[in-house]
Hints:
The chain is mostly helical.
Amino acid sequence: MMQQLDQLAAAGSALAQEDLSMFGRDPWWLVVIKAVFCFAFLMLTVLFSIVWERKVVAWMQLRIGPNRHGPWGMLQSLADGIKLMLKEDLVVKRADKVVYLLAPVVAAIPAFMAIAVIPFGPAGNEISIFGVRTPMQLTDLPIGILYILATASVGIYGIVLAGWSSGSTYPLLGGLRSCAQMISYEIAMGMSFAAVFLYSGSMSTSTIVESQQNRWYILLLPVSFIIYIVAMVGETNRAPFDMPESEGDLVGGFNTEYSSIKFAMFMLAEYINMVTVSAVAITLFLGGWRAPWPISTFWEGANHGWWPLLWFTLKVQLLLFFFIWLRGTLPRVRYDQFMKLGWKVLIPVSLVWLMLVATVRALKNEGYDFSQIVLYVAGGAVLLLLISLLVDFFRRAEVVEETDGDGAFDPMAGGFPVPPLPGQSLPPVPRRRPRRERELIVSGGTDTVSDGIGNDGKGGDGA
């Protein structure tokens, strides 16, 4: 299998023929303009997303959202940012002050860096800015996706350092949770990326988008897309996976001891990460800057000029709405359920799927017919399903054998309440006395004998 993967990678590299010569030729002033554009795109998208989230969630919950600042309340995010900057800036007495002040910066800066390799338009169809032809992308690298993963990993350190440097228990627990999420969910995320690398033959973002000219990878690699969507929600600490800042059990999580502009930087980093992971999902699975299918078929100029920027922005807003939709509909899961999803579901499924994709690509390179490949893959999938059904059947039989007899079990044995499994039953719940009995007991009636008090008002049996 490893030899086949090596041959597949070599063949993919030969097919990709990635040409990055158009990058790195811009004059310094144009590089500055493109960097400022990327920064402004992120900031404006964040300002709009915060208002949009509050309005959409308000609409879902049948209440009124922001409607005071600006037309339709669109300047509410700007007003909140100004308010946070004017608030008193507090520094906790027991905090490690250097790390405490550095943590928000470490969380925010890497969030801006990942957008540098995201293509907003085709690299071959250059646009003109002040008479200079340039691609609609700041830069690109042969390992652009690995660069994005690296910057995303560095941003987690800001949250971990914030929890540790605060000198408080709850922020420390929030930082540790964020570290555990990063480890468990970036493994599944990386393996979902590997399937894209096998199909495109490149790690360059512009080459990956170019390879989706005929068919988007969401159709070819649907399992990788679903794994990445779940992993990106966990990676950004968004509901229902917002464990590092769970106010139900951690007060405010890693940012409990932060106020003023430092707190605003953590919020800014979260929303910028949402935009970044959405842009990565679009680049890898949704055709990047390409127009959707109905438009691209009857309009030849849909993917030329400045139009790709519009399609890219609409796709980003669609995925941001998905984030908001999750927050407005799903409750927060327990932390043990969250980690189980990462380690016991996403990672095994992504590993099996990656091996399946590598096998299909290797068979195609060997010249096998498509029907034969489908037959082999379907046979392997059916075999795995049969094995899983047998394992599940014997596991259920063992549970039933262990719970023979009265079938009672302790729902609090694991430290938190759990529902009964098949074959188990809850212990009897003590019932309240009927209302007539309670009235007799309160009034000192005859039923008070059962409580050890006789009718004559003395203890025992009244003797």
